[in-house]
Give the backbone structure.
Amino acid sequence: APALASQSPPPPPPAQPAPPGPPQPAITRQHALKKSITVTQTIGPRGGQIKIEQAGLTVVFSKGALPQNTTITVTADAGSLISYEFGPHGTQFQAPVAIEQDMQQTTIGSRTDQATKLYGGYMPDGISDIAGDSAKVSETHQSLTSLGIDGTGKPQLKQSVFTIWHFSGYILIGARQ
């Protein structure tokens, strides 16, 4: 996934995303998080990464994404949906930031037919945009999903990665409508 972050990126999206659209189906965890998990770390101009192992999340900051040392907060939201809050809210990046999700921790890990149908969805109002097993998103980011083989030799989804240019709430959704 760091290779994704070092490719020539497309220009960042506008600072003011469109209003949220209709609810999109969310991807769920095999095991719900009983409580939210928050990690705080300083990331500087050299880039770096933040992990929340229990949630299967790695956030990779490209070199130059942040012009100065910045205290970053990442929260894996409690519950079964793969949703996250990132802060400081509104932070704009000068280079792409990759959101990597371990798909083996999801309920669709064996659904290799879903590999090209996953998106990261930007939730401008965070978890307030979630209703049941869906979320209203105002931006979608195509996810690149790698495949692997499980212990029995069956194909499975391994990791899904999408690139973002600003912080707030994001959720992994199953399709763009």
Observations:
- Residues 2-6 form the longest helix (5 residues).
- Helices lie at 2-6.
